[in-house]
Design goal:
It comes from Mycolicibacterium cyprinidarum. 88% of the residues lie in helices and 0% in strands. By secondary structure, the protein is mostly helical.
């Protein structure tokens, strides 16, 4: 979906030239600081209802450019994490503890106390996992809000740049920016897959020991 959306955007901007990037960005800049703040709020809300984050980030880059757009994307990402975590905590906290049972719930609480922040950071690096769905689950398991916000900021920074820069590269016709974004995406995907594999092996080893 993300690649198809970028393709359509490139077709409208570069091939058909029916979208004037300079005119659109001029309109956005004329509204002052209201436009980025509005986009943060709207994008955070859409992300919480499972609108794909890469599409929202690409739109941020297209409208605001790679630098400001990255900060807008990060703000929206943190907002989505907080909204989804609050909803998960409110709707699923007691149910999750009931399904886990008292012993497993206590063990989860201990794990969160030791490394909840880094669990959120690590999840953001693993490719193929919906950040919003993970935030609902983290909320249901009781991860504190400050850990959700800090973890989303730290863990989402590379991908926020990637998707925002890809959207901005279409508006600015910048191939080096697109290549840089793709390289950063590949690096974070490798790191995330390696971390997930190590975590899975460690968990399996712990189960075998018990």
């Amino acid at each position: 979906m993300f690649v198809a959306s970028l393709g359509v955007l490139f077709y409208l901007v570069a091939v058909r030239q029916v979208v004037d990037v300079g005119y659109i960005r001029g309109l956005v800049e004329s509204t002052g600081p209201l436009a980025p703040l509005t986009y943060v709020v709207v994008s955070a809300s859409l992300g919480a209802v499972l609108v794909p984050g890469p599409l929202l980030a690409a739109g941020s880059g297209f409208l605001f450019g790679p630098v400001l757009g990255t900060f807008v994307t990060l703000g929206a990402t943190i907002g989505t994490a907080v909204i989804a975590s609050l909803a998960g905590r409110r709707a699923g906290r007691e149910s999750a503890r009931g399904l886990l049972g008292p012993q497993r719930a206590a063990r989860i609480d201990e794990l969160i106390a030791r490394g909840g922040l880094w669990a959120v950071v690590g999840q953001r690096f693993v490719p193929g996992i919906s950040d919003a769905l993970a935030s609902y689950a983290f909320g249901a398991f009781g991860v504190p809000l400050w850990q959700m916000a800090a973890g989303a900021f730290i863990g989402s920074a590379p991908r926020a740049f990637v998707y925002t820069a890809l959207g901005a590269s279409i508006g600015e016709f910048s191939a080096p920016l697109a290549y840089t974004a793709i390289a950063v995406w590949c690096a974070t995907a490798v790191v995330g897959a390696f971390a997930a594999h190590r975590g899975w092996r460690s968990w399996r080893a712990g189960r075998s020991d018990r």
